[in-house]
Structures are given as C-alpha cells and as structure tokens.
Amino acid sequence: MSLPPRARAAFFQAVWKITRLIPPGQVSTYGQIALYLPCPDGVNETDFLAFRARWVGEAMAACPSDVPWQRVINSQGKISQRRGAAQQRALPEAEGVVF
C-alpha cells in the first residue's frame, strides 16, 4: 500500500527532518524513524502501523541532497541490496560505522 498523495508531502518532510538529526557516525533504521512519526490525517491507523517503515523508505528514495540518506539502514542493521548500496556502505564507514 502506498502513502496517500494528500499525506505524502508532509510525511516525507517529517521523515527528512528526523533523518537530518542522525549524527555522523551513527545510523538508524527505517522502523526506528517511523516510531517518531504520527499517523497522517486521513490515513487508517492500522494501515499506518503496518506500512510506516516502508513509507519511510519511500521518503528516503525521494530525499533532497541535504538529507543524510546513507545513515538509514534496514531492520537487520544492514544495507539493503539496491542501486547505490556500495556508496551507502562507504559513507557511514568513513564516519566510523562498522557493519
């Protein structure tokens, strides 16, 4: 299920704001970020609880260049295999993160 378009912009902005707070040398998971987000208006809470981490991932895929996307990892504490995975690993490692 995708985030409804009417809630998308505000949700994405909230995700990016939280992600900008992750300090260099630390990482967070999609799910950890999702825990800080309220259910958007007009979204069923059951759907929100089921899909919020995935929606954080959607926000990260669309983030502006000033968002440290590389500091957001999957629930296993790993880099998800996708385009850009090597860069996502190299950037936090340069900050001292060990995977």
Structure description:
There is one protein chain. The chain has 99 residues and is mainly alpha-helical. The protein has one domain (5-94): Winged helix-like DNA-binding domain superfamily/Winged helix DNA-binding domain (Arc Repressor Mutant, subunit A). Helix content is 48%, strand content 4%. The protein has helices at residues 5-19, 30-35, 45-61, 85-94, and strands spanning 28-29, 72-73. It has a two-stranded parallel ribbon. Helix 1 (5-19) packs across helix 3. The radius of gyration is 13 Å and the shape is elongated. The mean pLDDT is 96.
Number of domains: 1
Q: What global shape is seen?
A: elongated
Briefly note the CATH topology name.
Arc Repressor Mutant, subunit A
Q: How far is the first residue's CA from the last residue's CA?
A: 30 Å
Main sheet record = 2 strands, parallel
Task: State the name of the first-level CATH class.
Answer: Mainly Alpha
Strand order of the largest sheet: 1-2
- The percent of residues in helical segments reads 40-55%
Compute the average pLDDT.
96
Number of E-state strands: 2
CATH superfamily heading: Winged helix-like DNA-binding domain superfamily/Winged helix DNA-binding domain
| Percent of sequence in beta strands | under 5%
What radius of gyration results from the CA coordinates?
13 Å
What are the low-pLDDT stretches, counting only 5+ consecutive residues below 50?
none
Total count of helical runs of at least 4 residues: 4
Classify the secondary structure makeup into a structural class.
mainly alpha
Second-tier CATH architecture: Orthogonal Bundle
